[in-house]
Amino acid sequence: MHIQIQPIDYSIILIYVAFVIGIGFALKRYIKTSADFFLSGRSIPAWVAGLAFLSANLGALELVGMAASGAKYGLATCHFYWVGAIPAMVFLAVFMMPFYYGSKARSVPEYLKMRFDERTRCLNSISFAVMTVFASGISMNALAKLLHQLLGWNYDLSLWICSGVVLIYVLKGGLTSAIYTEVLQFFMIVLGFAPVVWLGLKDMGGWVTLKEVLRNVAQDPAKVGLAHDTALASNAMTSAWQPIFSGSSANLMGVDWFAIIFGLGFVLSFGYWCTNFLVIQRAMSAKDMGAARRTPLIAAVPKMLFPILVILPGMIAIGLSYIGKDNYRLPPVAISESAYPAAVETFQKFAAGRMNATATTAALQTIIKPKLSEAKIAALLAADSQQKLDSSAIRNGLQDAVADNDYDGVILSLVKKYCPSGLLGLALTALLASFMSGMAGNVTAFNTVWTYDLYQAYLAKNKNDAHYMWMGRVVTVVGILLSIACAYVASNYSNAMDIVQLVFGFVNAPLFATFLLGMFWARTTSHGAFFGLLGGTLSSALFHGLTLPAGSTAGIKGGWLATLTVFPSEMAQNFWLAACSFSACLTLTLTITLLTKRDKSDNELTGLVYSLTPKVKEHDLHWLARPAVLGTLLLLACLILNIIFW
Amino acid sequence: MGLDIRLPIGYMFTLLGLLLTGQGWLNNNNAYQCSLNINLWWGLVLLVFGLLMLIPAWFAKKKQ
Q1: Could you tell me which of A239, A258, A282, A257 has the C-alpha nearest to residue A89?
Q2: ipTM for the complex?
Q3: Which of A225, A254, A305, A559 has the fewest CB atoms within 10 Å, counting from its CB?
Q4: Are residues A140 and A480 in contact, defined by beta-carbon separation less than 8 angstroms?
Q5: SS3 readout for chain B
Q6: What does DSSP assign to residue A154?
Q7: Same domain for A343 and A451?
Q8: Same domain, A80 and A143
């Protein structure tokens, strides 16, 4: 089952680790003040900040999750990039960066304090701090589990070693070393996965053949275990928009065009890219306003092409699995260790009693959660009747008989299939790099928000700079330890994690409305912002409590108050929830603002609100280098991609 | 910041490129289902990328 790792693969991993730690030590001598540690002293060139902007978001979860979605939904997954990310990144660069950077705020919550008041800052910084720790923990758990399943690495060891490496270089070089290593990690991820995708596509027979195969998959999704039993139109996996416009029952995501455009494209993506400090911190560290505004634009170029690297492998895997090339199949869901003894015993009992496959499968199914294939159990029984199987052969046979796919294992299964030693080390390093870049991103954002927005603001005002830098170092260690604790919680109580993620979905969905009104309408009051945000969050909880995705029971999936509407899929529920809570927050903020007295004068809002801030001078820039022009070009390119893959 | 990030990136990929090319050169185990010595070729790609990062960084250093 496990991949054989040779000394050369370990040497590649070690060289990479040596370099990232080396960067931390090389930067140590430049870190003198807290501004150097938390903000890189605002000295980073645009291209470096741009690639770090992208890399911080490209954690292991994104890499593994997008390949999984590529296998589950096909080309429509690209909407997360071409409808979601790119327009939001352009908006951030052209319209919002002047206020984030120009206001000299050190973090996104601090901007909220300047624009509104302490309450909104407090709400936002606490939810952000808790969220980053949990996000980091969930991602760490996912990666350590994957490494354990496919490489046989020890779960605890990989968790602690990876975190240790991140800890060393962040502690030494602060945000600067996080950013610099993120650039190195960006190239590592691209150059490590590109050959795998290329070999996969070559093996498949090229893009045209892959499309041909996926047309067949769409017409028979059940054959490869996709969660859709009925045949779909042949273009359901190979075109981005046609299946979406044909309605939610005609595509694998189960969403309609409004949910994609408004829910995903407008609310969720803008909410993430334009308000999440994790990415915005990278742009804030840029050396000047021009560089800060170019940061998201530079990041948008590779982001637009990323589907080739992260979604295409998923599509290749499902295609290979459909034609059964060289007996390839998507990795099955792993049977839990605790279920094995009872399952093996049951199998032996039924085999000895010469029971038929139907009865055996039914009995095993009560012990093993993921769905079993009756045909495979029948084959296993036949093999056993010819020659008694030992328990490890039965174990392997049972695992092979699992019909449910573990989509998160798609990437590593391709790595395993195509990489000889050498290239294997490179691909594994790329996976570790993506994990470390995501984690370092979370940790640096967390320590800044904690130190500036919570510690300095409420717990220890007016201390000297060295004290805050000391605090930053301490909280870096604490943050990493907390993430590790969350990883263990995630590995033991997946339900608890689902609830946490759900709650943060509630908090995040309305946030963009607050920023939109705050930045572009000088009249918006602090009361309006705070109660609007709170009301928006409550409305998402209410929405969740009243709706349910099809095929689920009331509870964690929704409908815990009553079930008014049933959505065709969880994703549809999620997108509509975002759309609803955004609208609620917008309406509430508007109404409360109009009912309360204005609390900030025009003077106080200069540099924070669009209409009261002098436009950034761009006369010295070549017209092609101006953010608005670059942004328009990017949007045009994005539109062309949408049309090509229509 | 005083560190040119192109240097560590350049050194790392040059090193990895040499390692991979060497591996491909010594044991020609073709990528599965692929009549191509992928280690050799991808090693060369990494090597070229590493040098493309290093050379401009060296020139910039000289100018200073």
Answers
A1: A282
A2: 0.94
A3: A305
A4: no
A5: CCCCCHHHHHHHHHHHHHHHHHHHHHCCCCCCCCCCCHHHHHHHHHHHHHHHHHHHHHHHHHHC
A6: -
A7: no
A8: yes
Q: Do the chains contact at A180 and B3, CB–CB below 8 Å? A: yes
The end-to-end CA distance of chain B, in Å, is 15
Q: Concatenated DSSP letters for A254-271?
A: ---HHIIIIIIIIIIHHH
In a domain, A161, yes or no: yes
Total of domains in chain A: 2
- pLDDT band (50, 70, 90) for residue B34: low
Cβ–Cβ contact B35 with A under 8 A = no
Chain A residue with the nearest C-alpha to that of B20: A422
Give the model confidence (pLDDT) of A577-591 as tens digits: 999 999 999 999 999
Domain chopping of chain B, boundaries: 6-58
Nearest chain A residue to B4 by CA distance is: A180
Pairwise CB contact (< 8 Å): B39 & A176: no
Question: How far from A190 is each of A427, A431, B6, CA to CA, in Å?
Answer: 10, 10, 16
Burial of B22 (0-12, 13-18, 19+ CB in 10 A): middle
Q: What is the mean pLDDT of residues A600-613?
A: 85
Q: Is residue A533 part of a domain?
A: no
Mean pLDDT along residues A393-398: 84
- Position A563 in a domain: no
Q: Find the mean pLDDT for residues A86-113.
A: 92
Write phi, then psi, for A402 (nearest 5 degrees).
-65, 130
| Listed residue (A607, A627, A605, A609) closest to A618, CA to CA | A627
pLDDT tier, A531 (very low <50, low <70, confident <90, very high otherwise):
very high
Provide mean pLDDT across the span A375-397: 84
Question: Measured between CA atoms, how close is B16 to chain A, in angstroms?
Answer: 7
At A164-187, the pLDDT tens digits run 999 999 999 889 999 999 999 999
Helix (H), strand (E) at residue A513: helix A511-520
Mind telling me how many Å the CA of B63 is from chain A's nearest CA?
Answer: 19
A-B CB pairs within 8 A amount to: 87
Question: Taking 90 as the threshold, does the pLDDT of residue A598 lie above it?
Answer: no
**Dihedrals phi, psi of B32, to nearest 5 degrees:** -55, 140
φ/ψ of residue A372, rounded to 5 = -105, 150
Q: Which two tokens stand for residue A29?
A: 């001598």
- CA atoms of A25 and A176, how far apart (whole Å): 11
Angle between helices A410-418 and A60-73 (to 10 degrees): 90
Find out whether A507 and A131 touch, Cβ atoms under 8 Å.
yes
